[in-house]
């Protein structure tokens, strides 16, 4: 299980990660990563409504989307448990304040734990090695 401070719960946080973040798709899942979630998260929080957030930069938070297309409730819950376990082991790779949304695709319902792990690692490698768009120098090589 993910620690409370690492859980993504609010609809607005999911929307921020999906709409403003980078995306990496694989056959079993899609991962959305918003590295500047810290700035958004700090602007609308107060210590009364979020007691698990320490002062300063919040830790990376992850959320999961597993629709009914993946399978019946038993299968969806199994996929969510597997993904939570895999992401928990990898949270230290993310910058503080990152928002991560992992969306399971229908084939994830029949995939093994190792297949989910392989696709998650491949998506995270792609997202974490990519530089933000504004960090790329423009006009280089002219």
UniProtKB/TrEMBL annotation:
Identification of the protein by name: Ribonuclease P protein component
Catalytic activity of the protein: Endonucleolytic cleavage of RNA, removing 5'-extranucleotides from tRNA precursor
Family, per entry: Belongs to the RnpA family.
Annotated InterPro entries: Ribosomal_Su5_D2-typ_SF, Ribsml_uS5_D2-typ_fold_subgr, RNase_P, RNase_P_CS
Highest rank taxon of the organism: Bacteria
Keywords: Endonuclease, Hydrolase, Nuclease, RNA-binding, tRNA processing
Encoding gene per record: rnpA
Residue stretches spanning the membrane: none
Function per UniProt: RNaseP catalyzes the removal of the 5'-leader sequence from pre-tRNA to produce the mature 5'-terminus. It can also cleave other RNA substrates such as 4.5S RNA. The protein component plays an auxiliary but essential role in vivo by binding to the 5'-leader sequence and broadening the substrate specificity of the ribozyme.
Record's subunit section: Consists of a catalytic RNA component (M1 or rnpB) and a protein subunit.
Species, as recorded: Kitasatospora cystarginea
EC number(s) recorded for this UniProt protein: 3.1.26.5
